[in-house]
Amino acid sequence: MAKEDYCTVNPDGSVTVALSKTYTFDGAQREKITLREPTVRDQKLFPAGASQKATADAEGKLFAHLADGVTPAQVDDLTIRDYGRLQDAFGFFLD
């Protein structure tokens, strides 16, 4: 599936990701997550770590920081498929 099939670039520069399944976070059902466009400050808040695990932890925290009402623990609960979709969405900001 092409990322354009599940990622929508919004007029404000944010990207909305359609998830592969419905999640329940804090009693609310979520089928989409919107990431706002990051700033350099956001990137500096969550620098890559010295290990692969530290880098993955920083990336997950950055995604939660950019997301609309999603915590780092909730990002950790996403399937690999949906986490990959967030990574693809982040890629839209790097063109």
What topology does this entry show?
Elements: E1 7-9, E2 15-25, E3 28-35, H1 40-45, H2 52-66, H3 72-76, H4 80-92
Antiparallel strand pairs: 1-2, 2-3
Biggest beta sheet summary: 3 strands, antiparallel
First-to-last CA distance: 20 Å
Q: How many β-strand stretches?
A: 3
Please provide the ordered H/E string of secondary-structure elements. Answer: EEEHHHH
What percent of the residues sit in helical stretches (DSSP H or I)?
40-55%
Cα-based radius of gyration, to the nearest Å: 13 Å
Q: How many helical stretches?
A: 4
Query: What multimeric state do the chains show?
Result: single chain
CATH architecture identity: 2-Layer Sandwich
List segments where confidence is low: pLDDT < 50 over at least 5 consecutive residues: none
Provide the structure class. alpha+beta
Q: Briefly note the CATH topology name.
A: rbstp2171
CATH class: Alpha Beta
Q: Roughly what is the average pLDDT, rounded to an integer?
A: 92
Q: How many structural domains in the coordinates?
A: 1
Tell me, what's the shape?
globular
Strand content: 15-25%
Strand line-up across the major sheet: 1-2-3
Protein name: Phage tail assembly protein
Pfam families: Phage_TAC_7
